[in-house]
Amino acid sequence: MTRSYTTANWQPDTALVERIREFAIPAQYIQEQVVAFKTEFELQSANHDSLFIKYVVARWRSKPTTSESTAADSLSGALKSPLTRMTHSWRPSEDTMILVTTILGINQAFAEDAVPEFVIYWIERGVSEASWNGKFIQHVKNQWSRFNNLPQSGVTATPITCDWQPCNEAVEILRHANMDDAFINKLVPEFILYWKETQRCYPSWNTKFIQHAKFKWAKQFDAAKIKGCNVHSIRPRSTRDIPLLENLLDRSWADSPIFKHTR
User: Fold this and answer.
1) Rounded distance, CA 263 to CA 210, Å?
2) Contact 153, 200 (CB under 8 A)
3) H/E segment holding residue 6
4) Would you say the pTM of this structure is higher than 0.70?
5) Lowest-pLDDT range, 44-58, 82-96, 140-154, 236-250?
6) Contact 246, 109 (CB under 8 A)
7) Buried-most residue among 56, 66, 90, 174 (CB within 10 A)?
8) Which of the two residues, 140 and 245, has the higher pLDDT score?
């Protein structure tokens, strides 16, 4: 008989723990993931066991590892992993991206676009961490939640207006992505002019603007890396300077049907 639980009262049984241990994951580590799993998955489902297996395996593989150690020693080694600083070349691990996209259900392009802002934020703070993958998971999860909770204008696509302004919620999302108000405000007139000239219609210009701002922020970050200077010293390219094809081939997560329904 298929078991059915709410996430609140679900617990992995002995058989499930043994199945996960086949991946060379210590039982102690498995038990430590239960609270985080139940926090992140507030839903009713008969498939908690399968979801929990994927969740634990992805988290285990994305944590720092120690060479030539047993599975039991790996957990202890991870807890004692040396602290490292964020670098310009940092990327989330493949298993981290699997966890973010498959387990948490976050759009892959959205997660990819969150990398530059995450790197910039932690480089500028100059702190050291044992696992940047874990921090990235929390960052992109928070950003995705904020993005999904943006006020929606409805299902009807409309052209942009001359006096359009991003809503407060959209601005807050960009601020949490480490963009300052000067950078955000500079994009608005160019954004309006570009989309008035293209005569395209969208159901939510706020989501389109966030997509555009993240794209420009990533481009600025790439330019700063090449020139070896602070990211804030690079002047953003004008929207009119960007070829039409480049804009139209921009990432499309803001066009997803998930953002075209009435809240």
Assistant:
1) 18
2) no
3) strand 5-6
4) no
5) 236-250
6) no
7) 56
8) 140
